[in-house]
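hey so i finally got around to running the thing on that chain from the lab meeting. sorry it took forever, my laptop kept dying and i had to restart like 3 times. anyway pasting the input first so we r on the same page abt which one it is
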Amino acid sequence: MTKKATNPTKSLEIPQFIIVSCKICAFISTKLVTSYAAKLFTTPIKHKVPKREFEMDQKSIQKTIYVPVINRSIVTYHYGESDRKILLVHGWSGRGTQLFKIADELIKLGYSTISFDAPAHGKSEGKTTIMSEFIASILEIEKQYGPFEIAIGHSLGGMSVLNAIKDGLKVNQAIVIGSGDIVQDILDDFVIKLGLKQEISDRLRDLFENKYQVKMDDFSAYKAAQKVKIPVLVIHDNDDPEVPVKAGIHIYQQLESGTLYLTDGLGHRKILGNQNVIKKVLEFIKTN
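ok and heres what got predicted. didnt touch it at all, straight out
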């Protein structure tokens, strides 16, 4: 039987039993459903490493490092032998080998790549995490593996790269692919997918701000972009169902030295392996 192709522009659907669970919690109490939604929002799905990523997984030097700022350990992947290093950052529910096609081409270009499984992702420990832990991991990896010439991030990884640069990551160029933008928009979209009322989104924001003593909007990508001075390539698909294209366009508009590349029909994940996208990435690296 022929395997049915998946639609790259179809959004990942939240299982019906979770939506029903949310509605039951909401019926019982607002506080209960807010806590339940917060748990869901901070719990990534750990996927098995697919066969297409086996080569990078097997050829990488893997090491567990400790990130003292967050008191968590993460698994890193050193792929290639060059002293010229590029940092790769996966997105939510991703893993350190997810950008393997880009990594393979970067190695041919004379670089090596450092990537990692973010907290609670892949082979790293834990069950829950938030973006600030992605950022802390990036900054610790720079201490242990840097300097890096370039940083490339996908989705939440793109947001994290821009925030890490704002917070001191030193790179000459950055590339963000399918990056989210405004944190409140992300919370709103999540709450809508769960079938909950808008007020739960506001309560979620307040819960996170009180728990972590941060302002959620401070992590919005457009705010970080305003402080990034290096050349940045923003890649986004017009048909991305996970992160609307307006996010990528808005980030680009805030950059001092930005380049925008929009694609069609690639969705949120297929974009990572598209040859035209990879060609654009390599051209950007060579000419900036």
